[in-house]
Amino acid sequence: MKTPLTRPVTLKRADRLQPPTKAQLKARAQMKESADAVRLRKLDTRGKIILGGALLDLASFGSEDAVRVFEKIVKEMPRDADAATIRQIRKFWAV
């Protein structure tokens, strides 16, 4: 004997047209805030990468101002490990 197929539960049209609850509205607002924060972090990171690349490019072509800025950044790095890494791979950048 075959098992009878059951139909999925569907909401009545009136139930689907109900306005969102406060909890749903709050969740949507939090999702939007989260998406905005992610978008801003990505934009910030992209800007830093572009700016750093431009600085390295200028310094590699011998711009004295760019070299001075580069040296100042390395000197002022709060983490010694980061400064050591930059100094170590600096030879590949021709700065």
Structural class assignment: mainly alpha
- Helix-strand pattern, N to C? HHHH
Number of helices: 4
Strand runs, count? 0
Helix content: over 70%
Low-pLDDT stretches are none
Task: Tell me briefly what this model is.
This protein is an all-alpha fold and 95 residues long.
Provide structural commentary.
By secondary structure, this protein is mainly α. The protein has one domain (25-93). Helices cover 74% and strands 0% of the residues. It has helices at residues 13-16, 22-60, 64-76, 80-93. Helix 2 (22-60) packs across helix 3. The protein is elongated. It starts with 12 loop residues before the first helix and ends with a helix. The relative contact order is 0.06.
Annotation keywords:
95 residues, mainly alpha, elongated
Helices and strands, with pairings:
Elements: H1 13-16, H2 22-60, H3 64-76, H4 80-93
